[in-house]
Amino acid sequence: MKAKKGLYLFIAVGFFVLSCATNLYAASSALDFYKGKVIDYIVATTPGGGYDAYARLIGRYMQKYIPGSTIVVKNVPGAGHIVGANETYFAKPDGLTIGTFDKGLIISQLIGLKGVRFDMTKFNYIGKATSEPRIMVVGKKSPYKTIKEFMESKETIRMGTSGVGSSAHNETLIFIAATGARHLKAVPGYPGTT
Q1: Alpha carbon distance 107, 173 (integer Å)
Q2: Beta carbons of 184 and 151 less than 8 angstroms apart
Q3: Kind of pairing, strands 38-43 and 70-75?
Q4: How many Å apart are CA 115 and CA 101, to the nearest integer?
Q5: Mean pLDDT across the chain, nearest whole number?
Q6: 152, β-bridge pairs
Q7: Residue pair 66/148 in contact by the 8 Å Cβ criterion
Q8: C-alpha gyration radius of the chain
Q9: 97 phi and psi, to 5 degrees?
Q10: Would you say 99 and 72 are in contact if contact means Cβ atoms under 8 Å apart?
């Protein structure tokens, strides 16, 4: 019985060592692929904002941990991140292009927003650089001190958002539709997060 247990242990350890060696070889091969290559990191905004800052910070670390590679941050702004997302989507599928853009593009695709040529279900997601809660703020001089006053206003209230297609804009439209507050109007166009 002891001999049998010893044999099973020997086989299990053998499989473990083989598995580790295979994984190390695969990781080494993946890193070797990037040696001497340029990885384009498309940012769907202008330089200087939050998305750009994240990409430049992440790009620096990618270059450090993918030895021999060069990460080039390429700003491709326009149409509330749609232009950059389209360029990322239609890049050659060779593992040398990644992109960052607003998650609001999911809704842009669902509602058929003009200019959307990408298919969000066909992107390969690596991760998300941040998460943030959603809040609504009013100016200090605003006549509205409570959400009830805000919602019951008889006047049109303009709610500033970032560009059409951004999560801030789409979520404002969803808020208006969900509450039935037709006196609220989304006003897109505030540029980026600079």
Answers
A1: 11
A2: no
A3: parallel
A4: 15
A5: 83
A6: none
A7: no
A8: 24
A9: -135, 130
A10: no
Q: Pick 109 or 190 by higher pLDDT.
A: 109
Query: In this structure, are residues 45 and 24 in contact, taking their beta carbons and an 8 Å threshold?
Result: no
The token pair that represents 76 in the structure block: 């491709």
How far apart, in whole angstroms, are the C-alpha atoms of residue 59 and residue 71? 6
Q: Tell me if 180 is assigned to some domain.
A: yes
Reported pTM:
0.66
47-95 confidence digits (pLDDT tens):
998 899 999 999 999 999 998 999 999 999 998 899 999 999 999 999 9
Q: Are 89 and 125 in contact (CB under 8 A)?
A: no
Tokens of 137: 């703020």
Give the residues across from 72 on adjacent strands. 40
Q: Compute the distance between CA of residue 120 and CA of residue 177 in angstroms, rounded to an integer.
A: 24
Helix, strand, or coil (residue 167): helix
Give the span between the Cα atoms of 93 and 163, in whole angstroms.
Answer: 28
Which residues are CB-contacts of 24 (< 8 A; sequence separation ≥ 6)? none
66 CB-near residues (< 8 Å, 6+ apart): 31, 34, 39
- Does some domain include residue 11? no
- Number of domains observed in the structure of the chain: 1
What is the C-alpha to C-alpha distance for residues 42 and 32, in angstroms, rounded to an integer?
23
In a domain, 6, yes or no: no
Residue span of the structural domain in which 155 resides: 147-190
Q: Indicate whether 167 belongs to any domain.
A: yes
